């Protein structure tokens, strides 16, 4: 008898949450191959990788080089031949549009290649192309016009081991996979209460009838975005009674941080699987052929609160930018203030204390506590420091400019000279020893231009350029509380192995300055948290001499930058009109500084950087 | 008898080639009103203004602020009421898309408003939205789906003065105007040999039957682009036997320079009118109702060669950026080299010698001729200079870094310190006196990173950042030849009144160093042109120690940057493979510097800047 009762081994699918390097086709292919071999060893039948997994997202104008696109095809073919034979793999890639010049259209598609049995078997094109914020997909891609699906033959995974010749039952074992790419999933008009695009690829697939919808994404992190993704997918899975597998990219690519957190939903809209946040992962899921649904799988814990989430994002962003740019070590100017303290803590967590150098550059205007606080911080973090007083150099500039500046008063020019001396010293150290300089400006000061171009803005990466000052405080407070509560803390205890050298693996010294400050274990010395913020570029200066209190400033900025409110709207909620108009003017006038800022890690839905495209020479406030 | 033989006064149309400031709605409306009053006084019936003339092009992310869009509508309504009653005016504006959230689509249209008789009478939407290079229109706009035209009633312009009550003939005097916006005109599949977009709005209008096609553009300058526009319009006018009026914007807006050069073609494809290049203008054209064609009008002269064209573009770009940012004066570091010499000459032409300050900052490594050459240049230009030696500051940095740098060799770090001392001094002067700092780097060195971030790259505007080094030489040579040939030269003799304070209105001194160099009148001292280029950051250094000869480098860069060629392709034409691979590696590794560069005036079809979107942390060469 050939017909037997097959043991109901559910089909296994897996999400490879990979961290590609942009443009590194061979390296990215190797990551996919490693994941594929691992998945195959676990009996996985179908492996998903992120959007454009072969080149990394976003490849940006590399796509304008035809040889780059050709290399992707070559790499893909080679990869197909290397993959384990039992496995089908969906790889994100770019495909030329042969109709571009005939029908009129962009020369490329943002696509997925189905690799199986040594070959590229099928190609699917992305249908909805995001062109807003940091996304420029209409610049490169033509939208796909058809819904995408393929049939996965399950016979290999279901072969009757008691009678290997049995094939009758197996022929029925097929499942239909609907294929979508990132934005294709983001047009549920019920969920959003509006349509973002004319078509909804999910509706098309549901009408067509598929067993599972898979999505290959590269969705950048912003605060609270994962909750939004989960709510949206819950809605969509339930609405169409369609299991959904959502694969997100992981890693930092310039200003963008991809948080992973890939997720799976069953037909009832229940989240039944989630990959790690801010780490690479391989999430294995099972599809039950009887119920035609996904079975409960591993759900990785989510960050406990927004502070932890942002912290993890910034640590990942700093680590990846540093390493992907070819650096091992970073240098940071430590002013004794809270911004540089936070950046030093992030860098230490990202790269290890041995790879972080703090440089103190006191001036005659620096308060005593600045140096003490910076040294206390460095001791808490276990990082090395150098102290380079700048008084002599200040005098040198004074003398050099003496005849030119005589009869003028001390002002912005002299303040900026100090900041630029420090910027020059930091770059000299970075250049001399091959370190990456991290700049330490926060979003509030980047917004109003309370920072010196070619001075404290110097750096290869602006680690907290998208973190408002009020959030800088809450992050530092959270960091201290976590240490106080957890001791050596959970993020370094093996659970989250992908984060090496975490700051908390080096518990703060029990006899450091920090402990004297408030008697608790802490990372950021209490005095840094409690003293009024100051640039210390003239005697007695504090930020609030020039700016409204940061809670007021940050609320105005939130309304202006994120909510696109007008001055009138902001004033109408109770803000002082003089303050509002001043802030708007400052924001507009600081555009020339932001244009020359280093990339800043994006953690909000609207960051200065690639998604912020403002004219400089304009008159708009 | 009411029927009389009307004198065939042709209908007058005019192109207002205006120079808007981005976001300055009231100011831009005033410019339109001034042009309208002037046109009305000349008997013009229809006035054309450039694309988005009410807000200036490109408004970029200002469009994301709803109150900005609302203000445009208000400004437009007010303008309509102020316009002369005899005149119809086409104004470029932005219009909300009421269907955006219902049908799915972008929230705005890039539109034209027809203003007549005190009101906005009609609205037309742009159909083809450029999303490549510096253009991001799909980011903001939904394409219009229909072809646009309106009927212009000519009775006012043709009224029988001998019998004012006569109306019979007048009722027949109507012409049909087809309306297009910029890119709508750029999809002639015959001309390009390919389709860029699926539809061709011109074909639609021709099939529909219109008398004239008008186009409101904001087409940025690049070398040779005007020839391309003229060839394309010639082809299109002839193909459809359709008179075409093409209105271009004028002026510099950040990195983009709009060259004007608005043009008109008759049905035979003959250019019968052209407005000035690089100046505001009002070009009046006549439409003959009998022949249904445009009559010959003024054809402004085109620049004589590419060097003159680029020179005029850069002068306009520097002047507009300076003034639109609210500056009057600029400061420039004069090294005695050719790049800073050219920038100083451009600035002098743009702003007047009294508004340009040259700063010499010799180091112990500077050659004697550097200071002499810089002073000779300044004398030729008639600009003031200061000399600030940097030797003492270099020693100050050496001492400050002594213990940290001991046992290391002099290298890039020390070279950059010098450049950054200069950058700091220049910014101190700029900050102290409210000057704009112009940076002086050329495209070749920006490409390979042969420049110091936070040093010589400092500035609010990079005047020649898109000018390859070989072109820097040819521009200087052209400048000298022109002076030698023309004496006080034609561009300052009243013909081109829109260019004030031209360098050539101040003839070079007959007893300056320059004249000693080669015996001719010249602007750029001969020694600056003839000596080998050097950064002079260490003894005896010349550029060619580190880089291939500039003619070789520029050819490789042209192929790489403009023609998107691969290393193999570039090598295949005869370039040395070691050199090519080195250059490609340098270009890729200098991305972090370019990201932090000031806006650079775009004069080629592919400039570093808003149209260059490359990842930094990548592995692509």
Descriptive account of the structure:
2 copies of one chain form a homodimer. The first copy, chain A, is α/β, with parallel strands linked by helices. Chain A is 36% helix and 17% strand. Chain A contains 20 helices and 20 strands. In chain A, helix 7 (225-240) links the parallel strand 8 (212-216) and strand 9 (244-247). The termini of chain A are far apart. The relative contact order of chain A is 0.09. The interface between A and B is large, with 97 and 97 residues.
Query: What profile does the largest beta sheet of chain A have?
Result: 7 strands, mixed
Question: Which shape of chain A, going by the Cα principal axes?
Answer: elongated
Radius of gyration of chain A: 27 Å
Characterize the quaternary organization of these chains: homodimer
Number of helices of chain A: 20
Report, as a whole number of angstroms, the end-to-end distance of chain A: 84 Å
Percent helix of chain A, as a range, is 25-40%
- Let me know the number of strands of chain A: 20
Mean pLDDT of chain A: 91
The class by helix and strand makeup of chain A works out as alpha/beta
Point out poorly predicted stretches of chain A: 1-6, 156-161, 166-171, 487-520
Largest interface: A-B, 97 and 97 residues
Indicate the proportion of strand residues of chain A: 15-25%
Largest beta sheet: strand ordering of chain A: 5-4-3-2-1-14-15
């Amino acid at each position: 008898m050939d017909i037997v009762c097959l043991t109901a081994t559910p089909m296994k699918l897996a999400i490879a949450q990979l961290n590609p390097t942009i443009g590194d086709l061979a390296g990215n292919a190797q990551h996919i191959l490693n994941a594929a071999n691992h998945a195959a060893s676990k009996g996985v039948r179908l492996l998903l990788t992120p959007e454009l997994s072969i080149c990394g997202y976003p490849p940006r104008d590399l796509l304008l080089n035809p040889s780059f696109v050709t290399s992707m095809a070559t790499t893909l073919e080679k990869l197909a031949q290397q993959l384990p034979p039992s496995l089908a793999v969906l790889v994100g890639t770019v495909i030329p549009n042969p109709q571009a010049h005939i029908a009129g259209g962009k020369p490329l598609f943002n696509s997925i290649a189905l690799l199986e049995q040594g070959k590229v078997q099928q190609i699917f094109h992305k249908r909805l192309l995001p062109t807003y914020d940091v996304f420029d997909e209409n610049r490169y891609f033509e939208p796909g016009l058809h819904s995408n699906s393929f049939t996965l033959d399950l016979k290999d995974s279901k072969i009757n081991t008691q009678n290997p010749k049995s094939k009758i039952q197996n022929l029925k074992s097929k499942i239909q996979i609907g294929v979508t790419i990132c934005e294709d999933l983001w047009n549920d008009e019920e969920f959003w209460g509006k349509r973002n695009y004319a078509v909804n690829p999910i509706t098309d697939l549901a009408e067509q009838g598929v067993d599972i919808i898979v999505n290959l994404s590269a969705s950048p992190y912003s605060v609270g975005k994962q909750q939004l993704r989960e709510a949206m997918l819950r809605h969509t899975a339930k609405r169409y009674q369609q299991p959904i597998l959502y694969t997100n990219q992981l890693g930092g690519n310039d200003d963008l941080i991809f948080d992973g957190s890939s997720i799976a939903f069953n037909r009832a809209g229940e989240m039944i699987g989630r990959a790690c946040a801010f780490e690479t992962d391989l999430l294995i899921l099972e599809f039950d052929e009887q119920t035609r649904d996904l079975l409960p799988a591993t759900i990785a814990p989510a960050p406990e609160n927004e502070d932890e989430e942002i912290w993890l994002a910034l640590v990942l962003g700093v680590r990846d930018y540093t390493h992907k740019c070819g650096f091992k070590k970073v240098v940071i100017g430590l002013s004794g203030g809270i911004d540089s303290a936070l950046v030093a803590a992030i860098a230490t967590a990202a790269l290890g204390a041995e790879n972080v150098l703090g440089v103190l550059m006191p001036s005659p205007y620096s308060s005593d506590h600045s140096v003490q606080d910076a040294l206390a911080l460095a001791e808490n973090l276990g990082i090395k420091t150098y102290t380079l007083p700048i008084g002599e150099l200040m005098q040198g500039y004074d003398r050099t400019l003496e005849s030119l500046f005589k009869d003028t008063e001390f002002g912005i020019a002299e303040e900026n000279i100090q900041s630029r001396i420090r910027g020059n010293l930091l770059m000299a150290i970075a250049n001399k020893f091959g370190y990456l300089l991290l700049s330490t400006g926060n979003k509030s000061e980047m917004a109003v231009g309370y920072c010196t171009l070619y001075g404290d803005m110097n750096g290869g990466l602006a680690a907290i350029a998208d973190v408002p000052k009020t959030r800088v405080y809450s992050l530092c407070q959270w960091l201290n509380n976590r240490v106080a509560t957890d001791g050596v803390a959970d993020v370094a205890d093996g659970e989250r192995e992908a984060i090496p050298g975490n700051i908390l693996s080096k518990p703060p010294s029990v006899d450091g300055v920090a402990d004297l400050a408030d008697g608790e274990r802490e990372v950021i010395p209490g005095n840094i948290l409690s003293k009024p913020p100051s640039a210390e570029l003239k005697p007695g200066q504090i930020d609030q001499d020039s700016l409204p209190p940061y809670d007021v400033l940050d609320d105005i900025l939130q309304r202006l930058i994120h909510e696109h409110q007008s001055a009138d709207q902001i004033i109408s909620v109770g803000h002082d009109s003089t303050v509002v108009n001043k802030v708007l003017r400052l924001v507009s006038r600081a555009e020339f500084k932001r244009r020359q800022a280093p990339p800043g890690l994006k953690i909000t839905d609207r960051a200065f950087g690639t998604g912020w495209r403002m004219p400089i020479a304009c008159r708009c406030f």
